[in-house]
Amino acid sequence: xxxxxxxxxxxxxxxxxxxxxxxxxxxxxxxxxxxxxxxxxxxxxxxxxxxxxxxxxxxxxxxxxxxxxxxx
Length: 72
Fold this sequence. Notes:
- By secondary structure, the chain is mostly helical.
- It has helices spanning 8-15, 19-29, 34-68.
- It is rod-shaped and about 75 Å long.
- Keywords: Coiled coil.
- Pfam families: HTH_Tnp_1 (PF01527).
C-alpha cells in the first residue's frame, strides 16, 4: 500500500496496527524479506520448544538423583 503512494497513517489504519507496533516491527524485522521473517519465527519457536525440553529433562534428572540417594 505504501508503494501505491498512500501515507503511512492510512495504511496503519486499514491494517488496524498502531504506529508504535509498526515501529517495533520495523526495528525488529528491518530489512528482512517475508521468507526470512517466517524462518526466524520458526527458529524462535523451535528454540523455545528445545529450552522447555531441556528444562523438563533437567528436572527429571534431579528427581532421579534424589530418589537414587534414598532421600525420599
